[in-house]
């Protein structure tokens, strides 16, 4: 076991313990309100024994993590902590989170952080808790705070607005895009089967399990049953052994592997035989030669505009900047007048140039090669313009990305 320290939102120090080898896939454990990383005393070593690198975190105001000097224990502060921790990790983890930890993870992964994790396990964490059970739990925590028998900041009780967070978390759940497992203890006083089902109905890729004879503290009430459920989910949905493609197997696996190469995004344009502008989005683009100046793009055989590119003597490649994601989406869709909603201009050859692109290359067609389900279009560059003050729009594993500056 190794002690770790992270810097969270506003510089709050966050303490953690790590189990296993740092070279293994990461599982990040987040406890609930009034709990510390000790809540995972059974789960953490069991996960590490199966080849996972397990990080058990103390939330702000809990355990060995700092108390917030400014009293910030709201959802935004907790979410900022989690984003900061995820930014420091060497790879994207599976997040396993109980109650308050589950709310934090739902907010982060459903509010612009869809790419920050590979899986999510929520333990007794529906946005809408049973009122009677919630009130009873709050009273118990307040009694513990009054008695001094606690290892958490009592200001937490008034710092988190559960009622205000519920609708926000409900909306965020609909945008969670990773494989998700919902776990409920059969005897939990804080959640109902109906509340868990309501949450499941919001998440697109979800499974749900109820563990018999367990209450709210599922991971400790029935540790063996919980660990078995968790390990089964991880091995099925986020396997430790990387996927492998062999000739003749599922081409989707090959596509996913190719998607591990991060690329820029381009819009390739030309004129059809009637002089009408045509274009499409492509990320298979590369420099070929500086002398002579050659580049290439790969166009799918089923692209509706491919006949125009085959026949055109000239074309342009427009590399998009990080503010042009709508342009990329427009030229990747069907049935839309792509140029009507796009600022464009012409240069020497008359082919469309997308205005204000990160870089635009005007080319003469040099060669065209048939290559499986694509055509390789080689162009000789005749004119270039680029914008050195902007950053690129990136594409990685099927999603748009932006540069992260540390």
Automatic annotation (TrEMBL):
All residue ranges annotated as the Flavin reductase like domain in the record: 258-402
Alphabetically ordered keywords of this record: Hydrolase, Oxidoreductase
InterPro entries with a match to the protein in the record: AB_hydrolase_1, AB_hydrolase_fold, Flavin_Rdtase-like_dom, NADH-dep_flavin_reductase, Split_barrel_FMN-bd
Keyword Flavoprotein: no
Gene Ontology molecular functions: hydrolase activity
KW Signal (keyword) present: no
This protein's name: Alpha/beta fold hydrolase
